[in-house]
User: Fold this.
Amino acid sequence: MPAAKLASSDTRNAAPLIRRALLILVALSATIVLGFAMRGDGNDYRTPAWALWIHLGTVIPAVPLGAWVLWGPKGTPGHKAAGRIWALMMVVTAIDSFWLRSLTGGIGPIHIFSVLTLYSIPVSIWNARRGNIQAHRRAMVGVYAGLFIAGGFTMIPGRYLPTLLFG
Assistant:
């Protein structure tokens, strides 16, 4: 293959990756700006109880259901139905997380996972419908891993959940 044609092919292949990287950068920047804009003096915001219950009610069942969807049989009606339910739970969890604030009363770095989830779920569904199952799987595994990473960050001493659970 001529060098000029090879370079053109490499540029076309890199364009979607560059677009995604820019979209993620914009989303992360928006999260940071939103966090500072919603920041209080630390004493004027209390997490509503309903937000915590919705969050826990969607995130706890998402762990075993996500495992079944990721490691169970693929392409079956059960996989598709459970995957839709899991994706919906993750989107609700991500949206709801913006009512769960950090100790300062603002949106914290943990909310980056919410933004990534809100980006990755639709992209993953789009990839599955286009037949790009490898990209679909990669995105869903990323969201599932993010579920555990974000869950680990919520258990940092001084945050609300460990205080609620362990006093």
Summary: The mean pLDDT is 81. The chain has one domain: 3-166. Residues 32 and 109 are 8 Å apart (CA to CA). DSSP finds six helices and no strands in the chain.
